[in-house]
Design a protein that fits this description.
about 140 residues, alpha+beta, 5 strands, globular
Length: about 140
């Protein structure tokens, strides 16, 4: 089994981070984007572990493009740790099984790295949005 892991610290409260990740899996815009990229397929991600404001683990199936058989694909895990009032350290990892690694030849680790980076980028966007919202509120109050 292979694993890619990256921790990140962002200026967003732990409850907001946890809710953001959990709710994004059911977001209609996310589901629509997934369907447009994977014609004829439904998103396979499901939460398999949920410790409120602490940990989320999501399993996503892999599909063999020749046989169209689903098998164990990725497990994406988020670990949330409040490090200060509005700061959260989030560990994001992607684990993949040996079968997936063999089927993907040498690309599985690269795909895992890209998956982690996409999820980190999403969390950074959450932080950035919060910072710009606070800045706009401050500018309005100063006017």
């Amino acid at each position: 089994m292979g694993k890619v892991y990256v921790p990140i610290e962002i200026e967003v409260p732990v409850l907001t981070c946890y809710s953001y990740v959990k709710n994004s899996l059911k977001d209609p815009k996310f589901i629509a984007a997934y369907k447009s990229l994977h014609a004829g397929r439904e998103y396979s991600g499901r939460i398999v572990e949920d410790t409120e404001n602490r940990r989320l683990a999501i399993e996503e199936s892999a599909i063999d493009t020749l046989t169209h058989i689903r098998h164990k694909g990725w497990t994406i895990t988020y670990e949330f740790v409040e490090t200060g009032g509005t700061t959260t350290r989030i560990g994001v990892s992607v684990e993949y099984g040996t079968f997936l690694a063999l089927m993907g030849m040498t690309t599985t680790k690269i795909q895992s790295i890209n998956e982690v980076l996409a999820r980190i980028t999403s969390l950074l966007a959450l932080e950035y949005n919060r910072q710009t919202s606070n800045l706009r509120s401050t500018n309005i109050a100063d006017s």
